[in-house]
Write a sequence for this structure.
DNA sequence: GGTATAGAAATTGGCGCCAAAATTGGTTAC
DNA sequence: GTAACCAATTTTGGCGCCAATTTCTATACC
């Protein structure tokens, strides 16, 4: 696919963020400004600005006089990010269920299906994009925009999905099943089930038999 | 007061952020680069970089070819920020209580007392600093650093305390009392009480009679 | 043969200058 | 007297150049 000619500064940081998340740049890799210039067809200053923004978001680390390299989250940080995501996504579950219209649910089913289809036919990058699309649509249903923003930002801080999360085909397929289960929970108006499924999805715990007990918090 | 000669770039953004929060720059005010240059004794480029960082943190807004102005959070956003803070700070309460040593509690008492003393003797800015110090020490007890970072950043996004939160002397005194109550809850090892007090502190609800029922989530 | 050192190439990062755009103030026409 | 228009000043923002620092390479010495 061709690189779109969209040289907006803010957009460059986003594009680079996506590429980092998608695993185009390996963790720890040094990002040389000249390379980025040619790769994104951007001016030197835009590259520098984008790198500063990414450094502020902790996606890259800045070492004075050495440059910027892709940040490698240690285990502790990864675990902490998961914990915060767990807190916030479960907190958002209520309003997601409350706000979802029939059209929203249909759209989510389409996105979940697209992800499922791409397991066989698509590349890992396609899969990554489809996953992002599903979760974007899902989160957009929440009523608290600040919460959504933070979650979106937080998603970038964890380890990139293709590299560490989707290690095995089985794991990807489980993710896909979880997507469908989440949609069904929303369709059923069952916020508690959505919370439970979201927690499993983030923590990547093994699939449970359908539980009926009400465990709050 | 003299401006310290600390021209670290990242630090400049923080100093400006503090000044915005403290109300030095009125909401909506245009921040002219030359003024900032002289005020902070910084180079033009540092100012620009700091402004970009603040724009990314949503503390200022950037209008192309017009400049940067202090962001005015609308009511909806302010409410949403409060909601997220509520979720996260109550979530942190558990580990705060668990981690607090006797020395920590003593330190918190000192900081709460300093705030109380400054109600009479200090300026509004002193009060602001003391409040920050208390909450910094409090949050630092949490074990999840990511959560602490987000909360700290979130604090900047809400309306500045002196301008909108501490409207009346009575309100400030209630805040001070709540500080002490929070310390006592920690000393007693009562996470539930700390959660409740934190919620009240953020929402600025009226003081309740000491409740005993267990209301989770 | 391996290591240390010096020189060369490359990379980052800062500074100043200048053009484009906007605001201000004054002047003129209606 | 008011409104519109035009000129002058101010302000932002981009571009290119160059210095400081680091990394790579080749040579010499142990």
């Amino acid at each position: 696919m061709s690189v779109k000619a969209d040289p907006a500064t803010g957009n460059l940081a986003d594009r680079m963020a996506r590429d980092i998340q998608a695993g185009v740049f390996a963790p720890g890799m040094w990002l040389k400004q000249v390379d980025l210039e040619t790769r994104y067809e951007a001016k030197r200053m835009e590259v520098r600005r984008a790198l500063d923004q990414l450094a502020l978001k902790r996606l890259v680390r800045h070492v004075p006089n050495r440059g910027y390299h892709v940040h490698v989250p240690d285990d502790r940080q990864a675990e902490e990010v998961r914990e915060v995501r767990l807190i916030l996504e479960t907190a958002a579950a209520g309003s997601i269920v409350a706000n979802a219209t029939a059209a929203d649910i249909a759209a989510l089913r389409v996105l979940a299906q697209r992800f499922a289809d791409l397991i066989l036919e698509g590349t890992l990058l396609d899969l990554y994009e489809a996953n992002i699309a599903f979760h974007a649509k899902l989160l957009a249903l929440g009523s608290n925009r600040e919460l959504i923003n933070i979650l979106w930002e937080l998603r970038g801080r964890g380890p990139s999905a293709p590299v560490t999360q989707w290690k095995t085909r089985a794991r990807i397929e489980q993710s896909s099943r979880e997507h469908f289960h989440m949609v069904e929970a929303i369709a059923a108006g069952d916020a508690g089930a959505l919370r439970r499924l979201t927690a499993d999805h983030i923590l990547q715990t093994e699939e449970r038999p359908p539980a009926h007990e009400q465990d709050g918090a």
